[in-house]
Every structure is written in C-alpha cells, then in structure tokens.
Amino acid sequence: MRAAGSSGIRLALMTDNNVANVDVKAFIKKKLTEPVVSEQTWTPPLADATPVVSAVMQTNPNVIYLGATSTSDQTLVIKQLAAQGSKALIILGASSGANPVLLDAVGAKGMEGVLVVTGVSFPGKGPAEIDKRYATATGRAFMDCEAMTGYMNITILGQALEKAGKAEPEALNQALKEMDAHDVPSLSLLPGGSRLRFGANGRREGVVVELVQWQDGRPLVVYPPEVANGTLKRRA
Amino acid sequence: MKSALPKITPAMPLRSAVIQLGTIAVGGAIAIVWAGDSPTQEIITLALLYAGFASAWNIVAGYAGQFTFGHAAFFGLGSYAATILTEAYGIAPLYGLWLGVVLAAIAAAVIGSITLQLRGLYFGLVTSVFPIVFSVVATYIGLQEVPVPFNPDAGFAFFSPRAPWVLSSFALGSTVMIGVVAVLLMRSRFGLYISALRADQDAAEASGVRTTEVKITALVVSAALSAVIGGLYASAALVVTPADVFGVQMSVKPVLFSVFGGIGTLLGPVVGAVILVPLSETLTASFGSTLPSLSGLVYGAALLLVITIFPAGLVPVVRDATLALWTRRGGGGATPSTPAAEDANEEPVEASSAPPASAPVILDIKGIFKAFGGTRVLVDVNIQMREGEILGVIGPNGAGKTTLFNVINGFLRPDAGAVVLLGRDITQAKPSAIARAGLGRTFQTARLFTGMSAIENVLAAALTRGSKDAALAAAWRALAEVHLTDRAQISAGALTTGELRRLELARAMATAGEGGLLMLDEFLGGLTHADSAVLLAALRRWRARGGSVLAIEHTMRAMAGFVDRFVVLNFGEVIAEGPPEEIWRNRAVVTAYLGEKWVA
Amino acid sequence: MYALQLVIAGLQQGGIIALLSMGLALMFGVLRLVNFAQADFMMLGMYGVIVLTATLHTNFVLSSLLLAIPAFAAGLFVYQFIIRQVAKAKLASAPEHAQLLATLGLSLVLQNGAEMIWGATPRSLPSAQELSVWHIGKLSIDQPRTIGFCIAVVVAVTMLLVLRNTHIGRTVRAAASDREAAIYVGINVRKAYLLTFAVSILLSVIVGGILVSYYPVTPQTGSDFILLMFTAVIMGGLGNVMGAMAGGLILGLVQSLSQLIIPLELNNAVVFGLFLALMLVRPKGIFGEVTRL
Question: Which terminus of chain C has a lower count of CB atoms within 10 Å, N or C?
C-alpha cells in the first residue's frame, strides 16, 4: 500500500472476478498514480457483503471503484458500505449500475451520489423522446442499458441490412465495416455520438465514456457536457 | 468339454448392439445430410454431443450403478484443454482434446480413489462438488472466458467452421464410438463385474470381484469419453466459461437425457438427447421471446413425467410394449419354457465321516475381538477348522454369528486377533482378496445379482478365479450341482426363494473354487424339504471332493445330522464345542438357549 | 475487531444455512429422501413474500406467516402426487435415486417456472432498502440479518422441541428410526411421511421469508444455496437434524473467516475443499449418520 498521494484520494478496488472487471482493474492500477489502499476480489455471487466491506473499511478509503456484474452483488455491497458508515464516493463500473432494478433494491437514498461509468448514453439531452416512449410502453421509470443496447443493435443492423440489400453474412459484414452513419435514429443513445464508424479492428471509433450520477432516484448524465442533463454533485 | 457347454445369451447380444449402433449412425448421418448448411445443423450437433455425453455418463451410472452428479468436471476439462491448446499453441482441437481426455482420466482416478468408500447417495452428492471446485479454481487462475480462436477458413482438424456438418459428423462419430466402447466393455469379463457391482456391491466383493477397481475403471472410462465430447463442445459453443462447462446444468444434462431415454440401456441416453434437445431448442425458437425459460421448463417437466409415469425410461417402455404386441400376435413364442420339476428326492450321498485330526488346518480364527461402540460382539473367539470338515456355528439371536462371518470374509476388521485361511493371514485383506483365496459365502437373506441371469450370477464369481473357459465350465458345473441347469438363462429376479438360495450356493461354490471353504449364513431357513435336500446333497458332494463348510444356524436341529462338529456362541463367546451328540447334553448350551430354569 | 465482525457475519449467514439444512436433514432422516428442490421452495417463499407484501401492504413477517398455509399445502401436494408416485414405481436400475431424480425435475420446473413468471432480474422487498444497523464500538451489526438469525434460532428450537415432546414428534421419530417396527406398533407411517415432507417444505419457505428481508431474489437463488445445504447436511451426518444445524453454522463461519487467510475468490473452493477433506477422514460426517432427531 502506497502512502496517500497529493490529491488526497484513497482508492479501494472492489470487484468480482469476471473477465471484464479483472481487466478494468488491471488497467486502473497501471494508469493511476493514486494509492490503492485496498483491493478485494470475489467469485460471484456474494452471499453476504459484510466480510468484504469490513475488510475495505479497515483501510478507510474515500473513493471506491465497484466492479460487480450481478445486481445482487452491487446491492449487497452498496448497502453494506452505507451500513458500515462509509462516506466514500462509489463508482460503479457497469452500465447496469444505472438500472431501475438497483433503485428498487437499494432505494433512492442509498443510491444518492453513486457514479456510474457507461459506454451507453443514459437519457440525457438526446434520447429523451425514446425514453418517454419506452416508459409509456413498459411502465418502467426509465430506459435501462439492456433495453438501449438492444434497441441500438437492432437499428444499426437494420441500417446495415438495408445497405447490404441481402441477408447474407458476408454482405452484412461488409456493410457494417463500411458503415459511416449519421442518421441512425438510435445513434443519439451513444455518448457524444452523432456518427457511427467501425475501425479496421472491428471496434467502434470515437467512443466517449459517459458518467451518470444517481440524484434523487434518477440517473443523470453529468459528463460529457454536450449530452449532460445534470451536474456532478459531491457527496454530502 | 467346451463344446458341450450350452451357449449363454449375453446381456448385450452382439447382433442387437450392432443394429442399435447402426441405427444411430445411419439416422444421424441422414439428419446431418438433410440439415446441410442450415441452422438446424447446429441443433443436430448439440443433440449428438449431449447424446454422446449422456452415453458416457451411462457407463458409470447406468451400467455400474454409480450415480454421479458431477460429470461436468470431466466434460469441462475436455473443453478447456482443447481450447487452451488451440488459443495458446495453435494446436487443432481435434488433437488438443486428447490432453483433456488424459486429464479427465487422471481426475477420475483421483476422484474415484477419494470417494471409493462412499456409496449411493453419498457418492452422488460428493461428486457434485468437484465441478464447483474446478469452476472456482478455473476462474481464479484467470480462465473466466477462453474464446475458441475464430478462423472461418481453418481446416478439418479445426472442424472447418464454414462447413457445420463437419463438427456434427465428429459428434456423431464420437457418440457411436462411445456406444462401441460400452458394448465392448459390457461384453467382456469386466461387463459382468460391472453388472454385479451395480446389483449388489457387497455380494460382488464377497464373490471375488474387486469392486473398488471396477468402480474406478468404470469412472475413468466414462470420464475420458466425456472429455472427448467436452472438447468437441467447445468448438460448438465458441467460448469456454466455467459457469457453462463446469456448471450444475452441465452435470444435470447427461442424467436428464439418460433417465428420459432409459438408464442402463445402450439406446436410451441417445434417444433422450435427440428427442429433448431439438424439442427444447425448437420451442425456445418459437416461443422463447415471450416465455424465456421454456427450455429448462421442458427439461424439468420431461424428467418429472418420466420418473412418475415410466421410471425405466422411454426405450425400455417402447421395447416392452412392442414385445407384448408381438407376443399377442403369437409371432415370437416368447413364453418361457416351464422349468423341469425339481427332484423331490435327492439321490442319497453317503454321509462321509469327519476328516482325521491330521488333516491340515484350513481356517484358523485366533483370539478375535470386535465391539460396536460400547457393545462387545465378539470376545476372544478361537476356532480351528480342518480341511474337509463341516462345522456348524450355532447360538441364539444376537450371539455374534453373522459378525463372525463378516470378520472372516473381510467385511469387518476385528479389533484384535487374526484370521488365517489356508495358511495365509487374511485379517487385513479385502473381501475380494479373501474370496479369491478360496472362500465363498452366502447371506442370511439371499443377495443375488438381480438383472443378471442365473448363469451370469455364477459366472461373474467364477471369472475371478481364472480363464474364461475354465470359468464357464466351473459355472455350469456349480449350477448343475444345485439342479438349476435348466433355469440358467432366467433372470435372478424371476427365481423362487428356494431357487435363489440354491443359486447363491452355486455362486459361493464358484467363488471358493474346488477344495475351498464355504460359509453359509442360515442357509436352510424357510426352505421346502425338496430345496433343503438339494442343498445338503450338494454340500456333501462338495466335502467329498475336498471342500469344507462353515455354517451358521440358530437351531441345532436343522444341522444335527449334517455337521461333524458344533461351535456354540453366546454373547460373542465360544461356550462349547464338540460333536453334535456332545453338544446336545451340554449344560451351558441349554442354559444359553432356554435359560437357567430348564437345565435342572 | 475485524475478526469479530467476520464471526458475526459468519454466524448470521450460518444460521440461515442451518435452518435450511435442518429441513433437508429431517426429510432425509425420516423419508430417506434427498430433495434437490428444497432450496427452490425457499426461492418461491421469497417471491411469495414480495408479492404478498405488495398486494396486502403489510410487512414481511406477516406475509411469511400467511405464506405458511400455502407452503404446507404445497408440501402435501408434492409428496402425495410426486414423491409417493415415484416411490411406488421404482427405477429398476437405481431405486434409491428415483425420488432424487424426481426432485431434480421439480427443481428445474420451479426455477424456470419462476423465471417465466417473475423474470430473471433480481427482486427485492421495498423495506429491504432501509439501512438499519446497530453500531457497537467499531462493530456494525446488520439488523435484518440479526433478526433473521433470531427467528431462525426460534424456529429451529421449536422444531426440536416439537419432535422431542409432542405426540406428532414421537410419531415422526418412530417412523424415522424403524419403519417396520413403527408399523407394527400401529403408527401411521404414511401420515408421518406426509407430515415430515410438508413441514420441511414449510421450513424452507419460512427461511425464504427471512432471507428476502435483506437479500434480493432471482429464480436461481435456490441453486446458490443447495450445495451449501447438502454440504452442511453431510458434514453433520445424513439424517442427523442437530448435526445439520451445527454443520450449517460451521459452514457460515468457515465461509466468513476463511478470508482472513485465503483469497476471497477461492471462498467456495475452501468450503468444498474442507468438505471433501472431511469426507476422507469421517465419511459419515462429524456427528455420525444416525437418525438423531
């Protein structure tokens, strides 16, 4: 454990051992100069978060990166952190961290101030109209990331299929590779994304990460500014 | 001699096995050709893979009766080995999966050795833990997701991804291969051992079958075959994750398909998989969007229905129904021939006299002590038996007679003392080793290998003594001794009580071998006069040929004219011993049986 | 202090596993039946409490009590129409496994049926959002878990007292220790079996009611618990109800305390590794395979 840096950040890493979380953790440790005061890794699901949270609380962190895949683990850890009197800023490393399910389980008070890092845009400025349609159709409070990615994937594939002109894997693949779209309606769901293009390695170009913060039981986009519908609040 | 022996109908006739496996091969090939490049081919691949996996599980669970709920452990090793070798070294999965086979075999040998003292439910539950441990460890060492490297133009050994029929053909080939292995196994000497193990582990062990070895071998074979399927499965799933290949669902699948189709049959596991997998996949494809968990529901409901309605499974039910129809039409003539009436009067065998005192000692029981918890069951028991002797051990209920037998034949270890059989100290030996040393026994209530024919019951024991030809001859001779030759092909389950007792004696004789020692636990109880006569005559001839007999009864009367000498046990102690007429007059014996007041 | 915190967490978790395992052990002791679906009834109990609490606007204790009646009825139904049917027509090649396979099928039906009804996303009780903790020094003690633990203890003790001291309890124990003898002395063994099965199911559902007060439920929640339950039962000696209780508590403690020395990731491997080691040394469990009720 390194001594606290000049920024005063004392970071704790709490993740399950899902591949994505393990990779993100390795990346954080490589990039960050701030001290990591505690690191806990578990095999999901947790039956009880008390032990793992107790271990973290021993080191008195003020920022906690929580990389948990299952809602049940997220719930248990967030509640247990509060129970043990943590005032640390919680950063959830999964889009599912902004799902209504989590709100049901932890409550608006419990989720207040929790930050979520996501590659999918939450209903900030852009997709408000889709969000409203979704809410009326399903009766849910807002569109979650599973619904958004599903919707997005289908519209992108639809566009590509139309371009390809035939339902053949090769042609579709080619169409996707050549895609440089501005007018796919669901594109507004992508952070900062009015343009969709795939690079040579098949990955999307120009990806922007979005930060969402739970405020009064709603996930508000606080970064990047062009789609933000809220401002970052520090925890009281 | 050999040619004079009647033919045995084996449990798995070659012709029927070839027809069944041929049907699978041809049916599978037609389906593969028909599906071509369509998505249906993937369903066929999956169905065939599970058919193979279930068939492999069936070897240890169905044939050997050792239910495991953890076969995903072996399956997963196959998947991981094949995929990791491809990913890290570019080795084609067709070759890489053999590493998985080796690993699975080793794992099975270790798991088998750890769990060999466990039986039935315990064995099943404990085996279910291993895949969980494997899964946790795989995750811990960073194998949460191992993708099968995607190269659509890879060749045959990579199962040519552009031609989905290649993988399904390999799946079909493996399934048929597993069937062939099962047939070869069950038609060998090992097959009889396996069947005996399934029917009654103790009786098999007492008949000379090394049950732990048989168990582990069956598990190893089954595990290795499962790993082959696991290796192929990786190429169908495209990514290997612990939750999938080591998951509980994966352990449940072979159980499910085998039970549905008919556990312990060659065709059953395959039929189960090729019905249920496409059914569940098709239903999911049609209704999956509205009813997301339909596939699991179908599997669960299928299992429940089969177990409550026709627990033997689909294949046996259909087979029996077809047979019944056939018989009713009068086509088959499947009515069993009525057994010849048993001779009520056995030709008298001269009651040969007791062996001379100079005859060598065959069994020497030296100072045996045995207690269960605080209860002392055997206290300093010393008994010597001479070759050719017929010795009766009598005593009231609870005197420790059966415990003594269990100590002698190795089911129980004495707390102190030694047992010497034919000059060999067998105190610490396994029951199967003691049996092979020349000891055959019967049980208080006959314990035969049900599901096997009479001759197979005896043959399984005889095979532990030598070559197949010699064993066959010995088995037929033993059956003739107890007048069961004409019932040889009847399943043990269909015999009468008297016949069962006679069959058990024949098996004990085949176990001990000529000149060996027979231990009989209340063998005359509840028998008709005719059956008793057959047994006693067979035993007299046994002794005339140089064999010895140690028999338990709780009354003297039944054996008075038969034994040379009695040993009387009471509360675990030898209270009297001597020729019958002497014991009759012994005060201690009368007291033990009737209480103090009758003695005067 | 940290270790003490872990001990408390271990006991709280262990209490739940203990109560669950007792039902399983009772069932095995009396009926010689291993029930794979036992934990799935707990899962149903969790959903049941959520539904009842929402529709009747009550709390989870009252909902759990209300749920006891349908739970008992479900137990009677399952025994009468599934378990007994299977007992009648036994699987030729593995008679002892027929009932177990039936419960395996039942487990699949319950899990997937629940998913069809309630979906795969986790559900929680609204009241479970409340953060209620007692602080004693640096220790923080979770209130719902502690209350749950206390209820578990009360239920467990009540069950043991009923088994020991009532006529019904004696009937059940007689049927467990010697079926034949029980029939001879005129005990209605079938009734005892039926009752035992229903009570075991009831226990699972009650545990579900306790658990849902702080733990989110998914259709697979049962399968997260079932292996732990089997482990506790086998550790305590199959069929030994007291042993199962001890086994459950030990398991909870081991799960919690093992992270002092072994990486948390290997938590389950530690639990099952311990179990396998125990099987090697004492295959009949710590307390022996006697039907001690």
Answer: N
